[in-house]
């Protein structure tokens, strides 16, 4: 026969009761207080008046238990002894237990509120599903997009911005990260955080997803759990949103969604998963195109870093001006004194079609939206009086050719992430160009080759060599013939989830590389991909170009959420062929060194069918003075033979 474990049974029973919450705990404490009062009353009952009966005795015991002030009123040794015991028990049971239970309940309640399990009741809000390295930057870009945000709120009839973020587990660290972002600051107090995962339909109801004006789904980092990739989670989220919209009662509109998909092969699946209005940002493709264009044109990353960050100077805006219908692009050249017209976006049905660097005589039609480069939304206000008095037409000359790569371009890639297969695919699209790529990384060679084999139709013009080594080891770099390469790319590791650790390897690798580059007469073009913008300051003493992937993607996500045309504009700029930003020497335009007003540069570029954006000084000692985009029209720019003109051209 088993021995009865009475003690363990009682402890287990009490445990099961106490976990039921504060109300049950208070009930048991009340029963314990009543039991102590009853025992105390029975013990003091024989001492006589004023506890002559059981009721009076129990009340006497309860008063001593709950209020220590009665201790001095008692007479007689026995009565004082019982009163002292009851007073001590009162401190322990009555006060101690009550304070402990209420404090625990309050802490649990506050923590529950902080985690954000309370459903929100909002309308026309901006919803971000998921928390990752891009979230705080995306929020900052939304808040800083004053002009776009104002028009966004006006379109939906909202008075103020309601921004809601769904994170897996809301913690005080999330709030602190938002507050520490200089683009957000005190605005973090107005941001609503809710706990949940985007792939759970119940969690989507918690953030009132169906009533959102725009939903942003940023992609998380890759992990070793490759069967459930970030793209799979994004598509599952889209399916959940689609099902919720279809099942909702009434004529529920599908909310507008901006989703980030890393693998280009899954973009079509994303569009099939959601029936409502949606823009998909192919993140791997975007970053790979930036890197590819920088390989072909050294210094271009500086231009795109400015255009893709509100924390710097210029940005692209897209806005409709009904009063200019029927006018030509040339008629509007002087109507925006503080902006540069890049072209327009025209809607063919529901899809926006960007038309950049169009001919000066191009006529604007109804619903066309102008694409402008400006410092702020206040700089894109139309000067109607100027638009009605256009300048004389410019005589167009024969268009200049765009210089193409010649010979075999040798590229050294240090590190590995999921942008590299997309980079190889992008380089394959450049016709008549040959590339010899060497990849040095600790990521297994077999897995790299397997990733690259999934690319459809890799061009035979691209040769790839793999080395399974750690480039942070200076001996490995010394064995490589650095001088034989035209471009060296250091990428942020895709296997390290912490952006600080991933950037640490990239930066240390670059410092080791710089020691070898100092000995060379002709240095290759070096490009770094970082994950944390704060780490860019560590490289100010060097001349390396930097691409900060999360910052670029955050700007695209935020800009596309507020204005759908933004995605199509940057797609047009990034892809091979069509409108492209390039550099021109002053000799190509037939200009002489000296001080030249920016207006004269614009006129000269127009003669060759191009648009002048600014100037680039590659040899400037200060990085902040390297690039001057959209200067004042009458500003005299110091032009030397080393200065390059930044222009928008069309590549056929």
Give the helix/strand layout:
Layout lengths: L5 H13 L3 H23 L9 H13 L10 H39 L10 E4 L5 H10 L1 H11 L6 E5 L4 H9 L11 E4 L5 H6 L7 E4 L12 H18 L8 E6 L5 H7 L4 E5 H14 L3 H8 L7 E6 L18 E10 L2 E6 L12 E6 L9 H4 L20 E7 L5 H9 L5 E8 L3 H9 L8 E7 L5 H6 L7 E4 L8 H19 L7 E6 L14 E4 H14 L2 H10 L3 E8 L8 E4 H10 L3 E6 L10 E3 L6 E4 L4 E8 L1
Parallel strand pairs: 1-2, 1-4, 2-3, 4-5, 5-6, 11-12, 11-14, 12-13, 14-15, 15-16
Antiparallel strand pairs: 7-10, 8-9, 8-10, 17-22, 18-21, 19-20, 19-22
Helix pairs in contact: 2-3, 2-4, 3-4, 5-18, 11-14, 18-19
Describe this structure in words.
Its main location: membrane. The chain crosses the membrane at residues 21-45, 81-105. Belongs to the castor/pollux (TC 1.A.1.23) family. With 652 residues, this protein is α/β, with parallel strands linked by helices. It has 20 helices and 22 strands. A six-stranded parallel β-sheet has the order 3-2-1-4-5-6, sandwiched between helices. Strands 13-12-11-14-15-16 form a six-stranded parallel β-sheet. Strands 7-10-8-9 form a four-stranded antiparallel β-sheet, covered by helices on one side. α2 runs antiparallel to α4 (77-115). 39% of the residues are buried.
Mean pLDDT: 85
Number of helices: 20
Q: Which percent range fits the helix content?
A: 25-40%
Principal-axes geometry comes out as elongated
CATH architecture annotation name of the domain at 126-276 = 3-Layer(aba) Sandwich
Short description:
Helix content is 39%, strand content 19%.
């Amino acid at each position: 026969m088993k021995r009865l474990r009475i003690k363990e049974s009682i402890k287990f029973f009490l445990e099961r009761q106490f976990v039921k919450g504060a109300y049950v705990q208070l009930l048991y404490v009340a029963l314990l207080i009543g039991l102590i009062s009853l025992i105390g009353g029975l013990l003091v009952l024989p001492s006589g008046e004023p506890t002559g009966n059981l009721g009076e005795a129990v009340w006497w015991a309860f008063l001593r238990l709950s209020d220590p002030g009665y201790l001095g009123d008692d007479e007689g040794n026995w009565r004082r002894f019982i009163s002292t015991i009851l007073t001590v028990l009162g401190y322990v049971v009555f006060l101690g237990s009550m304070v402990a239970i209420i404090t625990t309940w309050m802490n649990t309640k506050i923590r529950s509120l902080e985690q954000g399990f309370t459903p929100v009741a909002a309308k026309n809000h901006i919803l971000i599903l998921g928390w990752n390295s891009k979230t705080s930057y995306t929020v900052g870009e939304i808040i800083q997009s004053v002009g776009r945000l104002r028009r966004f709120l006006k379109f939906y009839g909202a008075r103020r911005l309601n921004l809601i973020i769904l994170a897996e587990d809301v913690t005080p660290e999330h709030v602190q990260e938002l507050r520490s972002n200089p683009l957000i600051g005190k605005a973090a107090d107005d941001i609503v955080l809710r706990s949940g995962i985007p792939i759970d339909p119940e969690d989507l109801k918690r953030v009132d997803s169906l009533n959102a004006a725009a939903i942003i789904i940023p992609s998380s980092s890759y992990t070793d759990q490759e069967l459930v990739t970030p793209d799979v989670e994004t598509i599952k989220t889209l399916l959940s949103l689609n099902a919720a919209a279809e099942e909702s009662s009434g004529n529920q509109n599908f909310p507008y969604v901006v989703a980030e998909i890393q693998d280009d092969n899954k973009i079509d699946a994303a569009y099939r998963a959601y029936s409502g209005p949606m823009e998909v940002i192919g993140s791997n493709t975007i970053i790979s195109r930036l890197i590819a264009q920088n390989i072909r044109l050294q210094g271009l990353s500086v231009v795109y870093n400015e255009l893709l960050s509100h924390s710097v100077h210029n940005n692209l805006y897209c806005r409709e001006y009904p009063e200019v219908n029927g006018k030509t692009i040339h008629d509007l050249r002087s109507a925006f004194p503080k902006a540069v017209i890049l072209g327009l976006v025209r809607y063919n049905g529901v899809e926006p079609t960007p038309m950049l660097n169009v001919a000066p005589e191009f006529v604007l039609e109804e619903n066309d939206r102008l694409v402008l480069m400006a410092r702020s939304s206040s700089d894109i206000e139309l000067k109607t009086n100027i638009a009605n008095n256009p300048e004389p037409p410019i005589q167009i000359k024969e268009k200049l050719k765009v210089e193409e790569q010649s010979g075999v371009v040798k590229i050294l890639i240090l590190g590995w992430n999921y942008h590299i297969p997309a980079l190889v695919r992008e380089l394959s699209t450049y016709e008549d160009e040959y590339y010899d790529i060497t990849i040095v990384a600790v990521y297994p060679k077999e897995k790299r080759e397997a990733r690259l084999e999934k690319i459809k139709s890799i061009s035979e013009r691209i040769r790839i060599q793999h080395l399974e080594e750690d480039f942070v080891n200076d001996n490995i770099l010394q064995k490589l013939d650095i001088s034989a390469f035209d471009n060296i790319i250091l990428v942020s590791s895709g296997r390290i989830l912490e952006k600080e650790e991933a950037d640490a390897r990239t930066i240390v690798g670059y410092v080791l590389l710089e020691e070898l580059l100092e000995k060379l007469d002709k240095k290759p073009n070096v490009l770094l991909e970082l994950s944390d913008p704060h780490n860019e300051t560590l490289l100010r003493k060097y001349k390396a170009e930097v691409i900060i992937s999360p910052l670029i993607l955050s700007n695209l996500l935020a800009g596309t959420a507020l204005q759908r045309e933004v995605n199509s504009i940057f797609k047009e700029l990034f892809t091979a062929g069509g409108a492209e930003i390039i550099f021109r020497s002053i000799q190509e335009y037939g200009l002489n060194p000296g001080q030249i007003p920016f207006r004269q540069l614009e006129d000269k570029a127009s003669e060759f069918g191009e648009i002048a954006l600014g100037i680039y000084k590659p040899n400037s000692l200060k990085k902040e003075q390297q690039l001057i985009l959209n200067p004042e029209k009458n500003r005299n720019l110091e032009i030397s033979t080393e200065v390059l003109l930044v222009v928008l051209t069309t590549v056929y």
